[in-house]
Amino acid sequence: RAAAQRRGSRPVAVAEGARGFDSLPDWRDSQRMKQVGALVGVATPFFRRHEGRAGAVTCIDGRAVVNFASYDYCGLNADPRVAEAAKAAIDLYGVSPSGSRLVAGCRPVHDALEQALARHYEAEAALTFVSGHSTNVSTIAQVIGEGDLILHDALCHNSILVGVKLSGAARRSFPHNDLAALEALLTENRGLYRNALIVTEGLFSMDGDVPPLAGLIALKRRFGCWLMVDDAHAMGCVGARGRGSFEAAGVAPGEVDIWMGTLSKTLAATGGYIAGSSVLIEVLRDHAAGFVYSVALAPALAAAAECALGLLTEEPERVSRLQANAAAFLAAARAAGLETGSAGPYGIVPVMVGDSLLAAKLSERLLSRGINVMPVMFPAVPMQSARLRFFLSAQHEAEQIVAAVTATADEMDSLRREGFGSAIPPA
Ligand code: PMP
Fold it and tell me: Where is the Aminotransferase class I/classII large domain (predicted)?
């Protein structure tokens, strides 16, 4: 009751029946955001409908626009060989696996993909899940629990934070990529807990930078912790051959205890995976809720991802093109006076804006100039840290990159000169 009162709710007499969903604070929050948007003339930038394949160019409202909103980093979603692999799997196995892996969902394509992923990480085994989000939630909640400690980078993805919350472990977040702060937290806390798990990302999804992996490995060894790296965005973007954060850091992948990744980005499918020791994989296979109680990955997606992983290895020039495009974008943005934070030349470059509505308005103006890029705003990033997030692709042309940067700098200037944002009432 006390907790309910703190949340501003009140106990309901049974006779009153259930309250409407419009009594939820989340409803009020989204309405307030929409009202403020309408007041200053900004439509919601989200849920734009792409009318075909969203590559470096996409079709929105019947119009071809240059696309920086999709994370098909190496252009493999457009590769006919990947589509053929998916179609062949549908012909062989049907669209749905019609069961969980334990019951009726195992197909040879799952084994092929999991073996390929295990080889990629030089790991003993790998396991696939139906989504990257549930991979993080289920894995973290399974390997760590009450009496344990979890230390995660402050900028870790929502799926990591949800897993942490569900696990019941004590939680400490360390400032982004700050090894000294992590060391201090470990010195103070490690002895108080049974197991400790450090979690970071291989390429940060909002900032486009990479972690100090060698330093994290040294700390996890010194303090007797497990290290988990979410390489969802790093695969295909980071390292000379796009193998991921271990390649860029020059460390053996076996130094990381839990590799997590998604099939939804470079690997041109959807789903998630874990790679690690055979003991870890057996624990997850027998117990992780998002695996045991969920349907198997669709065979077509497993086949597509396996094909994409093979192509990534055979055609490293895709990675070089992507990284050259990211470097060109960064150089042009800096020359135009745009703030790109700590982003490196990988696949994600944020252009910092600050105010959420200004970021949404910029996105709207850029779309009208033929450029599709999404704003990222609170709560996905801290307050007043809204940004436009550009996903680069191996398929972007040099002129498209220059045009996007020029238009962004122009529109940012115009909106500031118009005084946009100064009249926005606080939320
Ligand atoms: N980890 C990170 C770092 C992510 O950015 C995302 C979402 N894009 C996920 C996990 C979840 O993966 P998925 O969207 O494939 O479920």
Answer: 65-406
